[in-house]
Fold this sequence. Notes:
This protein is α+β, with helices and mostly antiparallel strands. 23% of the residues lie in helices and 38% in strands. It has a 5-stranded mixed sheet with strand order 1-2-3-5-4.
Amino acid sequence: MINDVRRIVQNRLNSIKTTYGIREVSYRLASDAKMFPHIVYDFVAISPTDMGRTDFTLDIHIWAKNTADGTGQANAFEIMDSIRDLFAFWNAPDVLTSQDVLPTFYETSGGQIEDPDKTIIHLVLRYEGQTYEEDATDSSILGKE
Length: 145
């Protein structure tokens, strides 16, 4: 199930690549850490429950290069706001997966992490997530009676 959630997260983050000139969206590790801006995301905790639900923590890191005119920093914060819009209490089945996976995301924190290289802007968003498998829930709640 978490692979399905990973595909959903990847697809949602890819949806803003062109708008903000994002060079790469990667799971766990960027292929080229000097390519800016880029996004790296990871699931830092995964806890299956006995109720047909899986709880997880998702970290999304935004890396950008500051510019003399400040546009790099402004772009990084615009990307952060766009990601917030993408995941704010978002809940919908994903048609690209083999089963209906219903993840819900709740932002728990977000901010800037100081990088030793002062030209690098590093922002992070943390989400707590829950996902249910369709067959583990009441189908009337999903509107599939």
